[in-house]
Amino acid sequence: MDVLRTPDERFADLPDWPYAPHYVDVDDGSGQALRMAAVDEGPRNADPVLLLHGEPSWSYLYRFMIPVLVDAGCRVVAPDLVGFGRSDKPADVADHSYARHVAWTAALLDGLDLHRITLVGQDWGGLIGLRLVAEHPQRFARVVAANTGLPTGDQQLPPEWHAFRQWVADAETLPIGKLINAGTTTDLSPEVRAAYEAPFPDERYKAGPRAFPNLVPRTPDDPAADANRRAWTTLTRLQLPFLTAFSDGDPITRGAERPLQEHMPGARGRRHATIRDAGHFLQEDRGAELARVVADFVAET
């Protein structure tokens, strides 16, 4: 496996990003190590809140949430998925699979020895995170699903998602900052867009963002479909407190909160959150508000 590592200087002086990375080595599947990065802030004896980002962002997406959660007394762990942020980047799109990303992130949880986790998963952070909850339920205390889901290929994905997938496949150059900005209701500054570009010095580093759209199960016989169906079976038997916090302006995941609310035992009868005036990346648009929703959920459960 050919692996790239973004130079540290690419992450110098990013706006609103004072956080030092912590590193954990995980097995790449062939006995070699991949380095995963994570922000780890707040008291070590507090229940950890695990902030998992998605496509094509990195933990920088959570910069408005981290201080609010730390001030609420939480330990906050915000990893960069393999292929993103400060984490190592397998350079071949074929090196990335749904199962590998679940295994790599599970290894990070092992390396940090996290227990009583509150999952906050958005986009692919939910696709990976919900699998982790199903496969390692002993590590988790509660779940917050934000603009995400757990597709099995048995339902139609929205036209907007198919258009995005095709656009990524056809784009000669993948403009990460532009993609993030397109998923927000606010207009990001050039400096913030550049911060989202920082992990990717050139196109060779973007195999992860290139791969993810094609890893979402689209048909019932997708390689990840059976594993996701098994995860649904497990999740619908767990009694973990479960909260949805979806924005009101995301065409990609609109309506995906309903099956979670209906089928997750810990979601029933709960007052779920709708984050107003926010797009797909609600952490950018209303990060402090989302963080307060998460902090209140942790405190009350």
Figure out the total of helices: 10
Element pattern in H and E: EEEEHEEHEHEHHHHHEHEH
CATH superfamily: Alpha/Beta hydrolase fold, catalytic domain
| Number of domain modules | 1
Strand order of the largest sheet: 2-3-5-4-7-8-9-10
Please tell me how large the radius of gyration is.
18 Å
What is the global morphology? globular
- The secondary-structure class comes to alpha/beta
Mean pLDDT across every amino acid position: 97
Low-confidence regions: none
What is the helical fraction, as a range of percent?
Answer: 25-40%
Distance between the termini: 43 Å
Number of E strands: 10
CATH class: Alpha Beta
Q: What name is given to the CATH topology?
A: Rossmann fold
Q: Report the β-strand fraction as a percent range.
A: 15-25%
Taking the sheet with the most strands, its summary is:
8 strands, mixed
- Write the CATH architecture name: 3-Layer(aba) Sandwich
Task: Give a brief outline of the structure.
With 301 residues, the chain is an alpha/beta fold. It is built from ten helices and ten strands.
